[in-house]
Write a structure and sequence with these properties.
Region (Disordered): 299-330
Radius of gyration: 22 Å
Strand order of the largest sheet: 10-9-8-11-12-13
Strand content: 15-25%
InterPro entries: MoCofactor_Util/Proc, XdhC_CoxI, XdhC_Rossmann_dom
Number of domains: 2
Protein name: Xanthine dehydrogenase accessory factor
Number of strands: 15
Shape: elongated
Order of helices and strands: HEEEHEHEHEEEHEEHEHEHHEHHEE
Distance between the termini: 23 Å
Domain XdhC- CoxI: 13-74
Number of helices: 11
Helix content: 25-40%
Organism: Lentzea xinjiangensis
Length: 360
């Protein structure tokens, strides 16, 4: 839902449908959301197209009646095939109207505040928590950086582009970046907050920039450290990093040359390659074509390669601020008990939904 916040806040009224439970295989995980606006316009998705029409109709009804609804779609349902959910799983969808507390929560989320929102429907209470988006730090104000910033923002990162050269590091050259910083890369990295979800991509191609910033990056518990360059450049870079005193164990974390082997050459194609490696690293993917594998297409997030470290990072984050959800008197305090999401393991990094105890 947080991803839809800018549009939701621009509408004078809306109904939003959120996936609150997933069992078996489904196209979208818990936390996926779709919203319907005042004139029937729609944004977002709860199933990748499978049950959108039925959820849309339900959302229109909730928009008119202001009564929240909880519906289940799945193969055990006689109407599942006609609804289009043919992937073998089932999902529960909570649909609710907008409310002042919900709007306040969406505004706080856009400002980067961690928070927890409670919703109630049919005697059940659900909690959805939003953490600030992960950071992507791109060092080197070159054409490749503009493309990496654009695709990084598309993937949900908060993107910073940093370069010591003010003539190149300008907001006009990197419109997709959330911020453009003029500073020496290593000095900026040493002074900025990072955590185990932060990704660093170094594109500078210059040892006087590369070595200091990579030395700093590899000393931190980051999710991803990558550097652009040829294999010869990589070999020289490793030699310089060893001379700078970087331990062998830290050198093994460096992804260089960065990106998956897609065969592209242009800045945009290179950015796709880098983004593919970011996703594969975060989600524990193989990087192989799906048709060559026999494993499930949608793997449980519990098995993702870097998800558990990312969950552990929550211990160092500020506590989520409790915010009341639907305007039906549900208290703002966080649920007394929020177990693992219904539909075991289907918990996306930035949206956790759980069944809590009613009554606060």
């Amino acid at each position: 839902m947080r991803d839809l916040a800018p549009t939701l806040l621009s509408w004078d009224r809306f109904a939003v449908a959120s996936v609150v439970a997933v069992r078996g295989s489904a196209p979208r995980p818990a936390g996926a959301a779709m919203a319907v606006g005042p004139s029937g316009e729609v944004i977002g998705s709860v199933s990748g197209g499978c049950v959108e029409a039925e959820v849309y109709d339900l959302a229109r009804t909730v928009l008119e009646t202001s009564r929240p609804a909880l519906a289940t779609f799945g193969c055990s349902d006689d109407t599942a095939f006609s609804a289009g959910l043919t992937c073998g799983g089932s999902l529960d969808v909570l649909v609710q109207r907008d409310s002042p507390p919900l709007r306040a929560a969406l505004r706080a989320a856009l400002d980067g505040h961690p928070l927890s929102v409670r919703f109630a429907a049919e005697g059940r209470v659900f909690t959805e928590s939003w953490l600030p988006p992960p950071r992507l730090l791109v060092f080197g104000a070159i054409d490749h950086a503009a493309a990496v910033a654009e695709i990084g923002r598309f993937l949900g990162y908060r993107v910073t582009v940093c370069d010591a050269r003010p003539i190149f590091a300008t907001p006009a050259r990197f419109p997709a970046a959330h911020e453009v910083v003029v500073d020496w890369p290593h000095r900026y990295l040493a002074s900025t907050h990072t955590d185990e979800s932060t990704a660093v991509v170094v594109l500078t191609h210059d040892p006087k920039f590369d070595i200091p910033v990579l030395t700093e990056a590899l000393s931190r518990p980051l999710a991803f450290v990558g550097a652009l360059g040829s294999r010869r450049t990589h070999a020289e870079r490793l030699s310089r990093l060893r001379a700078a005193g970087v331990p062998p164990a830290e050198l093994t974390r460096l992804r260089s040359p960065v990106g998956l082997d897609l065969g592209g050459r242009s800045p945009s194609e290179t950015a796709v390659s880098i983004a593919a490696e970011l996703v594969a690293t975060r989600c524990g993917g193989t990087g192989l074509p799906l048709f060559s594998l026999s494993t499930p297409v949608h793997r449980p997030l519990e098995s993702h390669g870097t998800d558990l470290p990312q969950r552990r990072r929550h211990e160092g984050r500020p506590a989520a601020r409790p915010v009341a959800g639907h305007a039906d008197g549900v208290p703002g305090a966080q649920c007394g008990e929020v177990p693992v999401l219904l539909g075991a393991g289907q918990v996306p990094r930035d949206a956790r939904v759980g069944l809590g105890r009613g009554g606060g």
